[in-house]
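Page 42, continued from yesterday. The earlier attempt failed because a stray header line got pasted into the input along with the sequence. Redoing it now with the clean sequence only.
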Amino acid sequence: MGAEDEPQNTTWGGQWRRSLRSGPELDLVRSWNRRIECPTCKAVAGRACRTEGGHPTNHHRARRDAAGPLPYEKWRQQGLIPPPRIYTMPAILEEVGRARTDFNLNSAMSDGIAVVRTVLAERLGMALGDEAAMDRIDEAVRKLLEVRGPVGSADLVTVLASLTVMFLSMTAGQEDDPDALFEALIRAQVDGARALRAVYEHRPEG
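This time it went through. Structure tokens are written below.
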């Protein structure tokens, strides 16, 4: 789980990647490069470049060179390029960055630590049953999962489950069974939630 597992860079996937790689500007660039036939794969004007196997691919370097420099200034004057979108990094990703720096870990472990730290920061609100605190946690995790995409999301769940097992084993010690401790914790939480719900349901109105 150390830093040697992967490069130390933030991966951007899911909804964020789709937002960063789509839009009118991309359509303009695509149309510009496809004005001419590709010297490499012989794709005709207006059609995408192809791999040797016949699958669509990014424009070949020779085609981009033949198409010439992109006329960004002309497109701006014509109002074809909208103002640049400003993306603000979510706080959860800043927490991921701090975890990577603090412990020199890979993305999956850093994501797990960031989620745990986010929950710890809201633990008072959780103890008081504050729905706003739960909403903030949900929103932070949702943004992180959007960035990571399906693969990173699965890694995050695996890391969180592994951390839970590790803490249960440490808490149980050598005498107690971690499985029994986990079941007791879940039952206590469920019973507490049901008791609290019963109080609200039978509370006098007004």
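Notes: Strands lie at 49-50, 56-57.
Reminder to self: strip header lines before submitting.
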